[in-house]
Structures are given as C-alpha cells and as structure tokens.
Amino acid sequence: MSSLTQPRSWERFFWPIVAAALLLALWHYSVIWTGTKVFPSPLNVEKGVAELLQKHVLWADIGDSLRRVAVGFSAAALIGIPLGLSLGWNPAANQVVNPVIQLLRPISPIAWIPVAIIFFGIGDHAAIFLVFLGSFFPILVACISGVSSVPQIFRSAGRNFGLSTTQLLTRVVFPAALPQILIGARIALGIAWLVVVAGEMIAVDSGLGYLVIDSRNSGKRYDLVVAAMLMIGIIGLVLDFGFRRLEKIKSVRWGFRNAS
Question: 259 pLDDT exceeds 50?
Fold first, then answer.
C-alpha cells in the first residue's frame, strides 16, 4: 500500500491526540461561553477524579465492574462456543433451535433487569446474569456462522487423514472459524460493558454504573458523573483495543486467508 493511504507510525498517535485536545478545548470553552453552573468543565472533572482517587472509591468501582464483566462474559463464552460449535456442525439441530435463538436474541438485556432482580435480588448475581445474556447470543451466533462457513474441503481433508469428529472440530473447524468467533466475542464484550453499567445503576450498589447514579442523586455531583462516564469510555476503548490486537495474531487470522 502506498504512503498516500498508509498512515505513518507517528500519525497513528499524533492525530488522535490532536483530536482529543480539540475536543477538550471545545468542551472547556463551551462551558465558559454558556455560563452553565450545572455541567462541569474538564478542570472540574479532573478535580473530581482526584477526589475519587483520594477516597479510594474509583479503583474499587472499576474493579467491581470489570469483575462482573469477566465472570458473565467468561460464562457466556464457555457455554456459547461449545454450543455454537455443535449447532454449526449439525445443521438439523440448528434448524430446530434457531427459532428459539432468534426469538430471545433481539430482547435487550436491559429488559431483563426486572426478571434478574426477581431471580437474584439486588447484588452481583443480577448484574452478572445481565452480562451473560448480553454476551451469550453474539458469541453463539458468531460461532454458528463461523463453523457453517468453513469450506467443506477442510472437513473432507481432515477425514481423509483419519481424524475423529472431535479431532476435526478442535483441530480444523474451530481454528478456521476462530477469526469470526473473535469478532463476535469483541462485539459481545462491548455489549457486556454497556449492560453492566446499566445494571449497576439499578440492581447493584457498587461499580461505575452505581457511581454515576449515586453521584447524581447525592448532591448532584455532575463532576463525578462525568468522571465516571469518562472512565467507562476509556476502559471500553482499552478492552476493544485488546481484542483488536488479538485478532491480528497470525495464528488466529489463518482462517481468513484460507477462506478467501
């Protein structure tokens, strides 16, 4: 690719920093121009972050949110990937189960909050259940689609080498479908991060979502509200960046090359 379309290494960092600086400047001067006493300036938010750190609140809430996402997302992957492999491998079984999947998949995990509270009460289990629901269906559907799209020649070659069904799934089909599964998992992780914040606003008394709603209700501390919102965005960006780096590993991307 030519240098006209391929950004230089320094540009990949320079321009995002410039964009962030312009956004901060626009935010700062917008607060000054409007004269608002409600919405905080970047400097007020910075002071709010320092206050949360001094009170040892911020790291605890971040840890609680990440823990709930890790547990719910891991449970969704542990169940969704094997189930997706099985349904992708058996089209007849997938045809039977698919209507149920398509019925439940469009239901927003937020709509499950009242049901989660009934089942699990107020606490970690309700939030983890919501994260699980938000993660499960994207992983399951991506896995089914990935397995179904594996070229038939891969399966035939594996059988010619005497591989059993289990060996064929684990050594051939799963690696070939892995890139698509990872894309589904990255989408699921983004949904999980959104869901845990929403769940913490209602069903839990800790975490970044709870920090947002508690700061709003306790003295209308909008500096702390925006500080928590920024932390939510930054952590979401870091999680997405980590998955994108994982997708670029050569041993993961071979499925794309062979399918093309």
Answer: no
